[in-house]
Design goal:
- It is a single chain.
- The protein has 181 residues and is an alpha/beta fold.
- It is 22% helix and 30% strand.
- Helix 2 runs antiparallel to helix 3.
- The protein is globular, with a radius of gyration of 16 Å.
Length: 181
């Protein structure tokens, strides 16, 4: 199994693998191109960078990601300024999602033991965001989290576990503070 295959299946993998390093360089170059492009040119760059882009998507600059090919955006998605998506595993974002400024989606993690971390091993778990979700500015979503349809994540929250559909979560770690009608 290649390191890329290990990464995509959730196994421990070597992030320094040459194939993965080249894929990150490609994404870095395309992110740079996107961030410098005029507004009317950004969509074409996103099409080359991301795995899928729905209709009427708007992503504001400065946007950064690890690979790009693991990110799938539904239709009518809005991603505000200065977002970071570490897409070592798939990041799937449904239709009609609003993502505030400086939101960070992290699929990657590292072993807890220092000796294992020194070897360069990583692991990754997918993030799934359902349709009609709003993620407030500065929120952080950790590996393996699913955010249910119609939910709201409060600004500055750290989402460490799955969020049910139709709720508002806030805090660190994020907890349900309200059920939506």
């Amino acid at each position: 199994m290649t390191e890329r295959e290990k990464m995509l299946t959730g196994a421990l993998y070597q992030a320094g693998d040459p194939e993965l390093a080249e894929a990150r360089r490609r994404a870095e170059a395309l992110c740079g191109e996107f961030n410098e492009a005029a507004a009317e040119e950004r969509g074409a760059v996103l099409e080359r960078l991301l795995g899928a882009v729905g209709e009427n998507v708007m992503v504001m600059p400065r946007f950064a990601c690890d690979y790009g090919f693991n990110i799938r955006l539904g239709s009518r998605v809005f991603i505000n300024y200065n977002c970071v998506f570490l897409d070592c595993a798939p990041i799937e974002i449904g239709d009609d999602v609003l993502i505030g400024p400086a939101v960070q989606l992290y699929t990657a993690g590292h072993p807890l033991e220092a000796e294992a971390r020194r070897t360069g091993l990583e692991w990754a778990r997918p993030i799934r965001i359902g349709r009609d979700v709003w993620i407030g500015g500065g929120a952080i979503v950790l590996p393996g989290v699913t955010i249910g349809e119609g939910s709201v994540v409060g600004a500055g929250s750290v989402v460490t576990r799955d969020v049910a559909a139709g709720v508002v979560v806030a805090g660190n770690p994020a907890r349900v503070v309200k059920r939506l009608p």
